[in-house]
Amino acid sequence: MPKVVGLRCRECGAEYELQATHVCEMCFGPLDAVYDKAVLKKIVSRQRIEQGPKSMWRYRDLLPVEDSVAVVTLGEGFTPLVKADRLGAELGLRNLYLKNDSMNPTNSFKDRVVSVAISWARAHGFETIACASTGNLANAVAAYAARAGLECFVFIPYDLEPAKVASISVFDPNLVTVRGNYDDVNRLCSQLIESTPWAFCNINIRPFYAEGSKTLTFETAEQLDWKLPDEIIIPIASGCQFVRHRQAASELIEYGLVRSDRVPAFTGAQALGCAPVYNAFHSDTPDRVLPVKPATIARSIAIGNPSDGIYVNRIARETGGVVEAVT
């Protein structure tokens, strides 16, 4: 039996068949993948996970790619969880850990989400993969599209750092520069999905792409001997990763993979020069995330109009976390 049964709107609950779409037609809320929990409860176990590959695909049962699908992988995931003793001493923390996702094939966590997205897209007949990016996602999409033998278009701001452009170009994608910032690039790509038969990783196949972020939390719990941390601190760009960390914690508890049912506090961090979620969190209207024009050298998280910003603030408040900004 299939484990992924459809899509559901996070806001109004409207349900859709499995397809490449990301926005609810009824209320414009975001769509999420829906799993058959009865199927998962029969198969998900620590033993099954521990017998899996030394990559994020050991958590395949909790990802939206069926067992019959050949995954597109470069060995992403299962990256080091480093105990930061010296930094912890500075901060007065005895058990501070850093998840080093720079050890992924293209040096960022984007490899996780892209591996899931391209695996799903290829299995559903797409021949061209695309994305809007501040750099890291473009690099991952170009690499994994090359691995899969698919046509690739990556759209980036015209002033992206030359070193990032060079690393993306290694994989020979169709590289399109857009005069504007990331939000302008994303707006253009959102229009292109109406006129092209392409899978845009972070737009029309976003419900599947986003699920790859859960593996960071799955790995962290397993590397801590199946315990969830007291608090998880996550950088915020679109907010997508933050939402999936919270979902992953719930799934670890629901399927009996961790030792307790305590949910960690989820805390977010933004660059002060691009901090719309932080601004809203510390206002009287945390659900009203107003766009800003990015003015920060932290380009990888410079998204002025974050799609999941309101959900970040809801999760942080629900779990006892905070959202802060640094410079």
Write structural notes for this entry.
By secondary structure, the protein is α/β, with parallel strands linked by helices. The protein has three domains: 1-43; 59-213, Rossmann fold (3-Layer(aba) Sandwich); 227-327, Rossmann fold, CATH 3.40.50.1100. The chain is built from twelve helices and twelve strands. The protein has helices at residues 37-43, 46-50, 85-91, 110-123, 136-148, 162-169, 182-192, 206-209, 214-223, 240-254, 276-281, 309-319; strands spanning 4-9, 15-16, 31-35, 81-83, 97-99, 128-132, 151-157, 174-178, 199-200, 231-235, 265-271, 323-326. A four-stranded parallel beta sheet has the order 8-7-6-9. Strands 2-1-3 form a three-stranded antiparallel beta sheet. Strand 6, helix 5 and strand 7 (151-157) form a beta-alpha-beta unit. Helix 9 (214-223) packs across helix 10. The longest helix is centred in the last third of the chain and has 15 residues, at 240-254. The termini are far apart.
